[in-house]
Design brief:
By secondary structure, this protein is an alpha+beta fold. It is built from two helices and six strands; from the N terminus they run E-E-E-H-E-E-H-E. The protein has helices spanning 65-79, 107-118; strands at residues 12-19, 22-29, 43-50, 84-92, 95-102, 123-130.
Length: 138
């Protein structure tokens, strides 16, 4: 299926902060600030992958990080196969949260299915929010 994919500008930043007295790491595509909202991408999705071995402060134990990095890479690979915009992620509160925008709501289900096939030992949760239509940037 051929789509008119939006090629998002790329300018990634990574930040460490405290949220509710717990450490958090955020990676965000800052360049989206100059073009958002993108016309047609009406759904904001958040996909959480829960750590198997979180620490008291809500981050994963060091030994789990290599597997989580594989999940991050797999997520980006799967996201590139669908018509969606990667906005970033946040590691906090016993999970990594991926944030992205899509034209159709069922994209999130496709991503969860793909990750579950590759990483069945993790728990996943998906949130979906319908946004306003946005502006036309083409």
């Amino acid at each position: 299926m051929e789509t008119n994919r939006f090629e998002a500008p790329q300018d990634w930043g990574m930040y460490m902060q405290q949220l509710e007295d717990k450490p958090a790491v955020t990676r965000v595509n800052i360049a989206l600030n100059t073009v958002a909202p993108v016309d047609g991408y009406r759904y904001r999705l958040q996909l959480a992958v829960y750590y198997r071995t979180p620490t008291e402060n809500g981050l994963p134990v060091a030994e789990e990080n290599p597997e989580l990095w594989k999940i991050e890479d797999a997520f980006v690979e799967l996201l590139n196969k669908v018509d969606a915009i990667d906005a970033g992620l946040m590691k906090w509160n016993n999970r990594v949260n991926f944030f992205f925008y899509a034209k159709v709501a069922d994209v999130g289900d496709e991503l969860v299915k793909g990750l579950k096939e590759q990483f069945p030992d993790y728990e996943y949760k998906l949130w979906l929010m319908r946004m306003s239509s946005g502006k036309d940037i083409s």
